[in-house]
Design brief:
- The chain has 64 residues and is of the alpha+beta class.
- The protein is 23% helix and 44% strand.
- The protein has a four-stranded antiparallel sheet with strand order 2-1-3-4, with helices on one face.
Length: 64
C-alpha cells in the first residue's frame, strides 16, 4: 500500500526521526503546525512535501 500524498518529516541533527503521511493537504498543514509547536527547537528541521509532485510545500525553520 502506497503512503498518502502529503509527507511530513522531522529531522533531528540531520537524521530523519519521525514521518507522517496524510491524504488531505489541510490536515497535513495542521499537523505541520502542531509538530512545529511540539518539536521545533535547535537542530530540528520539519518539511512538508507533496509526494505526487515532489514540491516542498513548507519547512521550518524558514530559509534565511
Amino acid at each position: 500500500m502506497r503512503p498518502a500524498r502529503y509527507h511530513l518529516t522531522l529531522h533531528l541533527d540531520g537524521q530523519p526521526t519521525m514521518h507522517g503521511w496524510w491524504a488531505d493537504e489541510s490536515v497535513a498543514r495542521r499537523k505541520f503546525a502542531s509538530w512545529v509547536g511540539a518539536y521545533g527547537r535547535d537542530r530540528a528541521r520539519l518539511t512538508l512535501t507533496d509526494e505526487e509532485t515532489g514540491a516542498l510545500l513548507t519547512e521550518w525553520p524558514a530559509p534565511a
